[in-house]
Amino acid sequence: MAILALLLLTATASAVAATNRIVGGADASIETYPAIVQIEYLNSTTWSHGCGGNILSPTYVLTAAHCVDEDDPMRIRAGTSYRETGGTVINVESYLIHPDYNKFVFLDADIALLRLEQALVYGPSIQPVAIYAQGIEVPGNSAVVFAGWGDTQPDGEPSTILQDVTVYTVSYEQCRRIYGREVTHNMLCAGVLGVGGKGVCFRDSGGPLYYGNVLVGLPSWHLGCASKRYPGVNTKVSAFTDWIVANAV
Predict the structure, then answer these.
(1) Cα–Cα nearest to 7, from 144, 147, 127
(2) CB 222 within 8 A of CB 212
(3) Is 144 within 8 Å of 93 (Cβ atoms)?
(4) φ, ψ for residue 246 (rounded to 5)?
(5) What 8-state DSSP symbol labels residue 82?
(6) What are the sequence ranges of the domains in the chain?
(7) For the chain, how big is the Rg over CA atoms in Å?
(8) Which of 26, 54, 179, 189 fits 20 for a cystine, CB–CB 3.0-4.6 Å?
(9) For position 19, what pLDDT does the model report?
(10) Which of 15-19, 79-83, 148-152, 195-199 has the highest mean pLDDT?
(11) Closest CA to 131 of 31, 54, 40
(12) pLDDT, tens digit (0-9, with 9 covering 90-100), for 64-101
């Protein structure tokens, strides 16, 4: 808990533009994003990457609730820029899905905690991420950054190396006009409206959306990949900070 508390920010920081530009992204180094992890799933005898996650403490990872496999083993891979190779691999011991997940609106409260069997050892490529205090909002049209190993185009293949891409937040009001009641105040929309070509795709779910160096969103759902009409919809982390702090112990 002490580690998480140290990384809990109580005031909005200014956005920091990424040096690189997932779909429409560029190769990135794990040392730039040391809090990101791969979540791997056991299919028969083969482990494969399916979602992203975010290091909160040596034993807790934050991800999207829909990334939790309730029937089969899961593990995380930390500290490597490359998909399904290198780094540190640790099994997931248990998980906690937010009690409001899917309760009122499909994929609302799409957030979960993974508890690891062993503690991660911090270093240049493995570090915890900062989150905002409950209720802090990111302004509309702010530059934010996605990172992950997801598909680089619709119906494409996942990237073998970590990617990042800069997009822009879309206000709740504008996103609600686009999607309707499917968007709630627990969600944060981001994309490049009117242009498209940059954003998350399949297998990026649960990974990071950064505002500066702060984790503000978890990719949750989207219509198309990097669409110019439909922004990606993310779980707004600051809507659940109190729940995270109360349970990541």
Answers:
(1) 127
(2) no
(3) no
(4) -70, -25
(5) B
(6) 8-29+130-238, 36-128+240-247
(7) 16
(8) 26
(9) 30
(10) 79-83
(11) 54
(12) 999 999 999 999 999 999 999 999 999 999 999 999 99
Tell whether the torsion through CA atoms of 166, 169, 170 and 175 is positive or negative: positive
Sign of CA dihedral 133, 89, 92, 42: positive
Q: Is 44 helix (H, G, I), strand (E, B) or coil?
A: coil
Each residue of 183-203: pLDDT tens digit? 999 999 999 999 999 999 999
- Which residues belong to the active site? 66, 110, 205
- Between 3.30.450.30, 2.120.10.30, 2.40.10.10, 2.60.120.10, what CATH number should domain 8-29+130-238 receive? 2.40.10.10
Predicted confidence at residue 87, as pLDDT, reads: 98
Instruction: Copy the structure tokens of residue 190.
Output: 């981001």
CATH topology of domain 36-128+240-247: Thrombin, subunit H (2.40.10)
The Cα–Cα gap between 79 and 29 comes to: 10
Tell me: the pLDDT tens digits for 31-48?
Answer: 999 999 999 999 889 999
Say whether 36-128+240-247 and 8-29+130-238 share the same fold: yes
**Average predicted confidence (pLDDT) for the chain:** 91
88-97 and 112-116 as β-strands: parallel, antiparallel, unpaired?
Answer: antiparallel
